[in-house]
Amino acid sequence: MTDSKKRTVPDPSLDAHIRALKARGVNTTPDATATHLHNGIDTPLPPADLHGTYVNHRPLPTEGIEDRRAYIIGTGIAGMAAAFFLIRDGHMPAENIVFLEEAPIEGGSLDGAGNAEEGYIVRGGREMEMTYQNFWDVFSEIPALELPAPFTVLDEYRLINDPDKNWSIARLLEKQGQIRDFSTMGLSRTQQLEVIRLLLTRKEDLDDVTVEQWFSEAFLETNFWTFWRTMFAFQNWHSVLEMKLYMHRFLHLMDGLNDMTSLVFPRYNQYDSFVRPLMNWLKDQGVKIQYDTIVSNLKFSARGGQHTVTGIQCETEPGEKTIRVRKRDLVFATTGSMTEDTAYGDDDTAPVLKDPKEPGESSGWQLWKNLASQSDVFGRPDKFCGDVPQSTWESVTLTCKPSPLMDKLKELSVNDPYSGFTATGGIITFTDSSWLMSFTCNRQPHFPDQPDDVIVLWVYALLMDKPGDYVKKPMPECTGREVLTEVCYHLGLIDQVDEVIAATKTRIALMPYITSQFMPRAQGDRPEVVPKGCANLALMGQFVETPNDVVFTLESSVRTARVGVYSLLEIPKQVPDIYPGQYDIRRLLRATRTLNNDEPFIGEGLLRRLLGGTYFRHILPLGQGEDSEDVEKPGLFEQQLNAVRDLLGGSHTLNEARDRIQVVVEKIRGRF
Question: Is 246 considered catalytic here?
Answer without folding.
Answer: yes
